[in-house]
Amino acid sequence: MEPKSEVAMVEHANTCSDDNHNHDTLAAAEDGGKLDATDEQKAVQAILSEHDLTIWEALRRYNKAALWSMLVSMSIIMRAYDIEITGNFYALPAFRDHLGEHVDGHGMEIPVQWQVAMSMGPIVGQVAGAWLAAVPMDSLGRKKTLAIYLVMTSALVFMQVFAPNRTVLAVSMYLAGIIWGGYHVLAPVYASEVLPLRLRGIFIAYVSLCYVMGQFIQTGITRAFVSWSSVWAYKIPYALQWVWPIFILAFLYWCPESPWWLIRQNRLEDAKKALDRLSSTQCHAHNHDVLAMMVKTDAYERELEVGATFRDCFKGPNLRRLEIASAVFIVQNFSGNPVGFAVYLFEQTGLSSENAFNMGIGLNGVGFVGVFCSMFPIIWFGRRRAWMYGLTYNIACLWVVAFMCLAPDYKTNQAYSWAQASILITMQLVYSLTIGPLAYVISSEVPSTRLRAKTLSLTATFNGISYLVITVAGPYLLNPGSANAGAMIEFLWGGLSLFSFAWSFFRLPETGDRTFEEIDYLFENRVPARKFRGYIIDETHIFPNMKNKESI
Predict the structure, then answer these.
(1) Which CATH number is 237's domain given?
(2) Residues 536, 1: contact at Cβ < 8 Å?
(3) CA-CA distances (angstroms) from residue 1 to 5, 47, 352, 548?
(4) Where's the Major facilitator superfamily (MFS) profile domain (predicted)?
(5) Residue 382 lies in a domain
(6) 456-493 confidence digits (pLDDT tens)
(7) Are 345 and 441 in contact (CB under 8 A)?
(8) Count of domains in the chain?
């Protein structure tokens, strides 16, 4: 970016205290989204202000936006809880006793075909649900869509709690998956659309923290019921899912709608009100500049012929954006992260059920700490470098764990099982610091604002398909009645992760410290991924009516 002039910096310092509310931007935007040079000056001023803000200033001015995005992101907690809990129930004695079948030498086990059927449910449902989510999000808005999903979640939890057999439980998982797919799209979209540049990465990463919290909570709750023998050992954990819809719905009425969505509905007065509700009082005057920037971004994308249909996601630079947004989740799924079948994997390596659950709790606890601290590598290294560092460590851990299986006394020496579990926990820590949260951050930043909901819907669909492969393969590879691969499965994930590293090196761009307008410009001009970080953009390229941005 070019250095900001002293005049621009002085005006930025006084931006949030200016009481002269100017409605010219609203009038200009309502007239087909066209802005004159004065309005473009406001848009550039807003860009300069975003770049000039520190993290602490942004938190002070936009703490309301941070809190509302955190509330919406909490929907991911119940999504992670429900998707992961059935996988851990395979190691729960009461679940196996009531719904399983006897396997010689291993006691009661859930048949592998039923493991696949129940594990596939949320994923297959997510594929459909993610694709469908963009329709109500674009027509009804983010807020109303979330309210509808929360009510539907409550009804489907009832079906899970009172399922009399494996068939009904499996059907409930498929139906619930449709809603989980919607949450996967809605939470990061809302966070990216209400937060300023400095907070965007941190609080989109919070979406990943919510995922880890859901995993941590469900593992801890399942561990608490491991000694129960009645059906309530798994029915109570299912019933606890009612907590989240009740809590979120209690506050959702006061939640502001996304100003980006309101602008695309030509509801500019409402967009300004939403911006005011998302920021502190002293910033209300400055929000006219922010609104001008948002309107100009929408107009700029219209000029670039960025449409608003699913088909447009596969055209021109948007196809590259879709590739990146989808690939980061595919890389994540094939990274060998053991969380989905962690307890079951630990049990198959030789640990007892109780020790396997204890290690599972430790794994999720480490994940929670890692994602909570992920803001530091995101801030220090940026998106691309943090991703590459995390992926490199991930690959090293996978190969070390895999080669341990070749030790001559591997099957008789339980020390190897503990060592492998410990290495996987350190891998989970680094994964949670980097790859885990960054997939949400990057996928939310690369789409155009007009196609964000649809791009993330397609991303979640592709994510679901790739995760479906893992869900189907996992039980067959781990189950004693099938391949019984145990930790040797890491040979597969280690090999696939090498391909992930190659893609990331050549195709993954740095989107940190870039406004959505600048990201649009970089993709439209086909800047190579490795040059995103240092590429200098003159705002006059985006705002042609600005002869000299230092005249602001």
Answers:
(1) 1.20.1250.20
(2) yes
(3) 12, 11, 57, 14
(4) 68-512
(5) yes
(6) 999 988 988 888 787 777 767 766 666 667 778 888 88
(7) no
(8) 1
